[in-house]
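Protocol step 4 of 6: record predicted structures for both targets in the notebook before any analysis. Target 1:
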Amino acid sequence: MPELSRFYGIIITMYFNDTKQHHKPHVHAFYGDYEAVIGIDGELLAGSIPSKQFRMINGWMAVHEAELYEAWNNAVQSKHFEKIKPL
């Protein structure tokens, strides 16, 4: 589970070849005991995360949308992707 970014106690990861369960570009977000799968479009796909952190993640994803899609395209092909700057 390669790490994309880390900010304010939130860890954002993206798995290689992760297209079977959610069928859309997404990230995995971890915060304390919480874990959520969030589409790059901002949709909560699975799990849960406090609303404040969910809003922070969505803001971060909006700023880094192009980089996230580039990382996703690499990840589904099992290619290396670069980390993305935090907030």
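Target 2:
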Amino acid sequence: MADRSTLMSARGLTKRFGGLAAVNDVSLDLWLGQIHAVIGPNGAGKSTLANLLSGDLPPTSGRMTLGETDITGWTPEKISRHGLGRSYQKTNIFSTFSVWDNVRLAAQSRVQPSPFNPLGWWRAAGHMQSVNQRAERAIELAGLQERRQVQAGATSHGEQRQLEIAMTLATEPQVLLLDEPLAGMGQAEAERMVQLLLRLKQEHAILLVEHDMDAVFTLADHLTVMVNGQVIASNTPAAVRADAGVQAAYLGEEH
């Protein structure tokens, strides 16, 4: 198993919208080889927290580090290039392109321009060997080898979620922020996604925002529960499941 090296941390992270604290004094660590799930009712601040960590929203206060680098206030593009990959609740793909072209475009975003050809003119994308290799590896990791030439818009909902993750993987991130990757899936698709995430955690630190409690308790190594923007518990899944306060606020007796 991978060691517990910390790849991303947040300390005292807060986001206020006027008088409302959507995220209030949240601290967490994301470790290599582990999935840290964040759960809570609608409006708990889970997606806002993910948006803060990815740079989509600037924090009102608090501090974030990626590796040993303070990334507080960085743009999403800069954070992404430093090693963070993000998927969103709404699938973001190029529906008229093939699965392969979607992933290759994501890999191509990491190409550094040459000082002699800063805009990359007159160079066919298909001839970029390093780009193709990253795209190929991402498609393999996501389990989409047999769907590579299919138009993205013609794939199933579950495959489109796999494709979005493949596009994220093509940027070679160390940390993955996944916002409800199982949303809207049937049982078979959800099971494939669970197996994919278990494979991915071996080489990444993963923050998982998810409402599917069966998947959460199958996947999570660490579990944080948020209510009204605040953390009410953060521990192992077994400890959180047994927490009377969490049961009363969110999980209910069935869990």
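Step 5 preliminary note on target 2. Strands lie at 6-17, 20-31, 35-39, 61-66, 69-70, 84-87, 175-179, 205-209, 222-227, 230-235. Residues 92-172 form one domain.
Proceed to step 6 after PI sign-off.
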